[in-house]
Amino acid sequence: MSSRTVLGVTGGALVVAAGVGGYMFWQQGQEVGKADDAARAAVTAFAQDWSARTLDKTTYVGTSPQAAAANFATATGALGNGPVKVDVTRFNRDGDNATATLRVQWSLAGGRTFAWDDPVRLVKQNDVWGVQVSSSTSLWHPKLQAGDSFAVNTSSGSRGAVTGAGGSEVMTNQPVYDISIDPVKATDASVAQLQNTTNVPGLVTKLQAAKKSGSKAPIPVLTYRRDDYVVVQNDVERLDGVIVGQRQQPLAPTRTWGQPMLGSVGPVTADMLKKNPGQYRSGQIVGLAGMQAQYDQTLGATPGFTITPHSDTSQVLYGTAAKSGRNVTTTLDPRVQTAAEKALAGQNGKPAAIVALDVKSGNVLAVANSPSYGIERAMSGHYAPGSTMKIASAYALLEKGFDPNTVVPCPKNVVVDGYRIGNFEGETAGSPKFSEDFAKSCNTAFVNATKGFGDTDLQKAAGALGLGVDWSKQVGFDGAYAGSVPAANSPTDKAVSVFGQGRVLASPLSVAVMAGSVARGSMIPPVLVTDPAQEGSRAPKPLDAKAIGGLRSMMRLTVTNGTATDLKSTPGGDVYAKTGTSEFSEGGRSGAHAWLAGWQGNVAFCVLVEDVPTGKSGGTVAAPVAKDFLSKLAAS
């Protein structure tokens, strides 16, 4: 044979050998593929069984299908019955062991989706692939221990507090007790007793309506402060179908303290839910009125929703913890506020108000209203200021160089453009000095003294003192009224404006600002809320020093020898004041409001008492309230 032939045979043998080896590699590959397919099929079936919640169909290693299904139900029960989607995202086999990663997406209530990656192991036993169950970790989530479960936690967070000067407590979180009725368990008899205990009418009727409609929703009754609840606790808790829930809610020192300026907090109303369904949820605690409503976005907590292991609720697997609201910082001084509240308590619910300011800073120290659950009149009321307006009228005169010692007659009546103007009590004082006209509050003298006023002179003087200029951006309270002093449109309009009638309007706050400006010698816009920070400048605007000096003397004379002599012996030092009595006519009824504005030491104030008896005035009604306020403040 030739070498060529030998080479040919050898080459042929080599080809045959290579063919046998290739077949063997192909056969092994087929076997590997089958093993991978079998393991992959097992984990895919497990993912499908999980999605369908048929966990008892899966083959497991280390437990039975029934036990695994029972453990799944226990571990995931808190997540609810929403749709679940489980997909295999990673897979790897090594011999008779395999690992895979499942992407789990669990649909929760409220449109939330709880998603996580769950690593699983598979083992081949007796030619069957099964899902390995560990004795130390849960099959359902890598952060759960064996036998552990998911915990769903909801929390409301704490509402922010309202604080006062120096961080003092004004409205802070305290325990409250919500009383409601379970319409399923309650009886007419038990609810009738609850109605008598709480003095809330119509509860039996509401229960009967709920039973008739088949409603199982709790019927809200009222919320008690802790001190009030302990009085009725035994009577309430023994009644069938009465639910008592405890929570925290911002409260002032007493039910009446700072009301209605501070406002109230409570469950969101049906009307609020209807108007703003995206902003509120049923049962949410929100600000309902006053500052609590105005600053609800600041004070309100952000509710929390978290999913954690039951064994460690600090380990958040999904969601965010509740976020407490931020505090609102005010300039209120609890000592001054309490004195004002006590002084108004003597009015027995008669409409009245006291506002107090810090002379040096212009900060609001107290805002008290009577009745405590009526309208907010102290800062937002619109009233004719009466003779307290003579503070601005006198300042306008003195700024022009008018001498307080000038004799200005005080006749019983004067006639302006055919309109007769008189004094409040129809009195006459002869021909005194102007300073005495001021102290005795003579309208006719002021009309005579201001005959030379231009149409805007009073407007400018009042504005310089802080009445009728816009400081709404600085004060931080919605509805705070700075007053209005329009330019005169006729001789009569000009004449009645100088003693605070006609079209002139003011709030107790704006009159207190005017008094504080005289005490300080400059005008500073008032501020109640300092955090959140308010807009606008609070730079002092200096006043005419000579005019202010003369005005101070006349306001002191009002106390020593004028219409405010009731304040002569007030504890705490000399008082400077101006009384006022403003007449009104509305709804076919006429009457008068009593005013007094002034200061003592570093506290400027204004007192208003509405609708006083015939013949009564600022000096006889408002002055005693002011004295009571200052006396209580001095004693505190």
Q: What's the average pLDDT?
A: 92
Shape: elongated
Low-pLDDT residue spans: 1-29
Into which percent range does the helicity of residues fall?
Answer: 25-40%
Topology, number of strands: 25
Largest sheet: 6 strands, mixed
Number of helices in the DSSP assignment: 18
What is the fold's blueprint, element by element?
Blueprint: H1 3-52, E1 60-61, H2 65-76, E2 84-94, E3 97-107, E4 113-125, E5 128-132, E6 150-155, E7 162-163, E8 169-181, H3 188-198, H4 203-213, E9 219-225, H5 226-237, E10 242-251, E11 265-267, H6 270-275, E12 285-287, H7 290-294, H8 296-299, E13 304-309, E14 318-320, E15 328-330, H9 334-345, E16 352-358, E17 364-370, H10 390-399, E18 413-416, E19 419-422, H11 434-440, H12 443-449, H13 457-465, H14 472-475, H15 491-497, H16 508-520, E20 522-523, E21 529-531, E22 541-542, H17 545-561, E23 575-586, E24 589-600, E25 603-609, H18 618-635
Parallel strand pairs: 1-5, 7-15
Antiparallel strand pairs: 2-3, 3-4, 4-5, 6-13, 7-8, 8-9, 8-10, 11-12, 13-14, 15-21, 16-17, 16-25, 18-19, 20-22, 23-24, 24-25
Short description:
The protein has 636 residues and is α+β, with helices and mostly antiparallel strands. 34% of the residues lie in helices and 25% in strands.
